[in-house]
Amino acid sequence: MIDKQTWLMIAQCGLSCLVGSAVWLAYPETPNAFERLLAALIAGFGSVWAVMFVWVWMRYGWKAARGISMDG
After folding, report:
1. How far apart are the C-alpha atoms of 41 and 57, rounded to whole Å?
2. How many domains are there within the chain?
3. What domain range is 35 assigned to?
4. Which of 8, 10, 28, 60 has its CA 20 to 30 A from that of 2?
5. What is the pTM of this model?
6. Is residue 53 part of a domain?
7. To the nearest whole number, what is the mean pLDDT of the chain?
8. What is the per-residue pLDDT for 72?
């Protein structure tokens, strides 16, 4: 049985994949395919941080949200 925290982590991963894929598809065709890849990766990682920031802000307040970091 998968617990609630695991489901939320799966949802967060899915959301970042969805945002990264949307950026990949919306980015215009360029001769250099690495531009699209880099834009999608930055958007995916950025969306993980944004979801975490909003979640902490709603749950624990503004001061706690401003203090989060991605360094584990």
Report:
1. 24
2. 1
3. 4-66
4. 60
5. 0.73
6. yes
7. 88
8. 56
